Amino acid sequence: MEVEFLGGAREVGRSAVLVDDALLLDYGLLTADPPRYPVRNPEPDAVVVSHGHLDHAGAVPALLKGDRRPAVHWTPPTADLTRTLARDTLKLHGNSPLCPFSEEHVARLGEVEDRHGYREPFVVEAGGTEYEVTLFDAGHIPGSAHVLVDDGHTRLLYTGDFHTDDQRLVSGTTARPDADAVICESTYADVTHEDRRAVEDRWAESVRTTIWEGGTVVAPAFAIGRTQELMLVAEANDLTPYVDGMGTEVTRIVRRHPEFLRDAEALRRAAGAARFVTGRDGQRERIAADNELIITTSGMLAGGPVHSYLPEIRGSPTNLVTLTGYQVEGTPGRELQERGRLAINGQVRPVSARVESYDFSAHADREGLESFLDSYRDARVLVNHGDRCEAFAGDLRADGVDASAPAIGERVEL
After folding, report:
1. What is the pLDDT of residue 269?
2. How do residues 74-101 score in pLDDT, each as one tens digit?
3. CB 9 within 8 A of CB 389
4. Cross-strand pairs, 2
């Protein structure tokens, strides 16, 4: 078995791993200005998508150009979420060189997709080889999966993104299928997460205090996973948020798949308590002035309704921006986090509102990664999807693990 890294190697974003030039694992984009896609356009016979986030699924419709019709395998939530992401990308970049697909390609997904549950092996034919593929709950977002690929000689485990601890929305992964080789994400390889309940308590207290003092809180959040997590945290702390952006539609989608949620009833209560924004007739401007909690996309400030709220609240230190997710290098969120400024309407402006970062990560931290990989001490480990892949691989080697960190474009024989 040979794997080629078309994206996601020594970086966070545009994940794409090609197996034997025929079976593709993920096909995402890197959120930046402009967006970045995998380094070349493969023509696989089949693709398996680990989960419905832009950096893993955002470019999948582009695989259906011309007469190409590779089979697409994923869980039901991932199928629905990928379509939502694709249509949002079309809204932002459609009919431009920044978007490599059209609405027609998104519609074609219905012709080629197969939906699968967890721990239900299925056969994928690609490049003249029959692979047995099994999806396991990765504990990252609803429908996220580890992907086990078995060609009869080698068992490859592609972790996708995963978390070993419970979140309010989904439970942490407990799957440890046998594998000869593991392609493992490493987003938080140099981080130890703070206790999640302590993070929730600090966030809720800061939100509550800001509102009591007459300020407005803007909580940029990834539409998929983080928005729903914050809604659950808010409801548990008697906070009533406004929810804006694509997270509104995503909430409806994940509620249609209760079997992929940790507590579907809790999400029902949180959705019932939230106020969903339509954006009509100056609604956003009024909300921004009303001392409220606003959970809105995008999580890295790259677009979406957050750009309606930030100009309204940026000028006063009474207001608060809570960054609740990883801010990729080169994104407006990282610029705000590190330099306290933001490009608004083409101009870089200082932000006087307080900016606080909270670790609501849906990824395993250093301890979680090591505990997961402890089950694979005899396997070959290929570290990807991180800013410090080479350093983490080096630490694993020092601990006796056969680990490396392939570069973009590199082929590895397993």
Report:
1. 97
2. 999 999 999 999 999 998 888 888 899 9
3. yes
4. 413
Q: How much is the pLDDT for 50?
A: 98
Alpha-carbon dihedral angle through residues 269, 275, 278, 281, given to the nearest 10 degrees: 170
Burial code of 54-76, b = ≥16 C-beta within 10 A, e = fewer? bbbbbbbbbbbeeebebbbbbbb
**Using DSSP, how many helices (H) and how many strands (E) does the chain show?**
12, 22
User: Contact, 52 vs 15, CB < 8 A?
Assistant: no
Question: CA-to-CA distance for 260 and 52, rounded, in angstroms?
Answer: 13
- Per-residue model confidence as pLDDT tens digits over 208-219: 999 999 999 999
Q: Which long-range contacts (CB under 8 A, 24 or more apart) does 274-283 make?
A: 274/231, 274/234, 274/235, 274/240, 274/241, 274/242, 274/243, 275/240, 275/241, 275/242, 275/243, 276/242, 276/243, 276/244, 276/248, 277/242, 277/243, 277/244, 277/245, 277/248, 277/305, 279/244, 279/305, 279/308
Residue type for position 11: E
The continuous run of DSSP H or E covering 55 comes out as helix 54-57
Q: In 3-state terms, what secondary structure has residue 159?
A: coil
Kindly give the parts of the chain with pLDDT less than 50. none
Residue that has been written with the tokens 């070959």 in this structure: 380
**Global confidence as pTM:** 0.94
Q: For 38-42, which contacts have Cβ atoms below 8 Å and span 24 or more sequence positions?
A: 38/6, 38/7, 38/14, 39/6, 39/7, 39/408, 39/409, 40/6, 41/100, 42/6, 42/16, 42/18
Name every residue whose Cβ is closer than 8 Å to that of residue 398 and which is 6 or more positions away in sequence: none
Residues 6+ apart with CB under 8 A from 91: none
DSSP string, 283-341: HHHHHHTS--EEEES-TTSSSSTHHHHHHHHTT-TTSEEEE-S---TTSHHHHHHHHSE
What is the pLDDT at residue 253? 97
pLDDT (0 to 100) of residue 90? 92
